[in-house]
Amino acid sequence: MRLEEYIEQVSDVFVLSDSFLRIKELVDDEASTIDDISEVILLDPALAGSILKLANSSFFSYPGKIDTISKAVLVLGITEIYTLVLAYFTTEAFKLDDENNDYLEQFWLNSIDCALLIKFLGVHLNVANAERLFILGLLHNLGELVVHQVTPEAISRCRESDLLPWQQQRAVLGFSYGECSAELLKYWQLPYSLFSSIRNQDINEVALQSIETQLLYIAKRVTYKSMVMPNESIKALSYQELIGEELLEQLEITDELLANAVDYCMLDRMGMLSILCPSAMVIY
Q1: Listed residue (139, 128, 120, 104) closest to 280, CA to CA
Q2: What CATH number did the domain enclosing 241 receive?
Q3: Is residue 239 over pLDDT 60?
Q4: Which domain of life is it from (predicted)?
Q5: CB 118, CB 216: distance < 8 Å
Q6: What tens digit of pLDDT does each residue of 68-122 get?
Q7: Are 51 and 81 in contact (CB under 8 A)?
Q8: Higher pLDDT among residues 92 and 248, named by residue
Q9: Average pLDDT, integer, range 229-236
Q10: Cβ-contact 171, 181 below 8 angstroms
Q11: pLDDT tens-digit profile of 124-181?
Q12: If you write DSSP's letter for every residue of the chain in order, what string do you get?
């Protein structure tokens, strides 16, 4: 099957809610106000509760208490609120049947790990608004869920190889999960800056790409190597072998910094899981 056929088959299964689409319209409309956005969020109590939990989490480290949605939008900014709303509705959109709960929980655990890692690296490198990088990590592998929905038998075949995961995905499917993720985000009409970085996460000439793409490239590989269920074909590789000395030197990223990023992820993943995917807490 072609990549486009996969997206066509899941376009009616994995959809973002009307509330998200309305919020997206307001964010894109320069005439919208904080109150306009807050009112739509408040129409969904579960969303409003998740936004307040995230806004008050260590993720933002805001010194005061954020106790209203309007204050959250004012303090964090419309862009950050949009990111949080997207994170919430994306996890809601991908609901599989009960027998696949364990698979989905592990998937979101790995995605949150990647999201926390890229955010940590962005903060360390003084990337502007580094919190926005979180959404790249969270959404970078949605294509795997697309493939799981359409051709679930292909998932195991994508794991049966000593090739690097994204190389095996292309061998089996003709495209990587990252490329499939980008195609879905493009179908959802999300910003080009978002899906272009995700599409290029496995490109060979990554040293010439944007800082967002470079950091996603790194965070994804650290996730495969060091997190809860490491990929065995990657685990034995050094960071220099896996990521490339040129890119690490270009960004001045050391093994010590990557170890610190992993420690940060281990400390914060529980909080993120409890908000975005509470059922995955049973893994622990």
Answers
A1: 104
A2: 1.10.3210.10
A3: yes
A4: Bacteria
A5: yes
A6: 999 999 888 888 899 889 999 998 888 755 556 778 888 888 999 999 999 999 9
A7: yes
A8: 248
A9: 73
A10: no
A11: 999 988 878 999 999 999 999 999 999 999 999 998 877 889 999 999 999 999 999 9
A12: --HHHHHHHHTTTS---HHHHHHHHHHH-TT--HHHHHHHHHTSHHHHHHHHHHHTSTTT--SS---SHHHHHHHH-HHHHHHHHHHHHHHHH----GGGHHHHHHHHHHHHHHHHHHHHHHHHTT-TTGGGHHHHHHHTTHHHHHHHHH-THHHHHTTSSSS-HHHHHHHHHSS-HHHHHHHHHHHTT--HHHHHHHHTTT-TTGGGS-HHHHHHHHHHHHHHHHSSS--HHHHTS-HHHHH-HHHHHHHT--HHHHHHHHHHHHHHHHHHHHHH-GGGGGG-
Structure-block tokens of residue 65: 């208490």
pTM: 0.91
